[in-house]
Known about the structure:
The chain is an alpha/beta fold. The longest helix has 12 residues.
Amino acid sequence: MRLVLPARGSARRAEIDTMLRRIGARPVAAVESDERGAWLGWVRAGRGSLLWYRNQLDDTEGVTVRSFMPPLTRMIGLVHAHRRLPPAARDFLTFAKQTPRDHHAR
Length: 106
């Protein structure tokens, strides 16, 4: 499948290449660009497919959205200043510590 991808050498492209390599896939670039605003337009024009965050797709007219099964996940961390945090930040940190690692927002 031909893909619309971030430009070579970018952090986002390295992330996608690593993720795909981990599952044994090699991307075939149809378009390589950091112009994120144009990516869906290129998909709608038939130039290629796109790996994108499902929750960031507001306008899906003219495209088909599919999920990976099993879902692709990545571990992220929470980094904050070493000082007393505001109440909202403390609440969020408590939530993050209590949420199981296998919990997926749906």
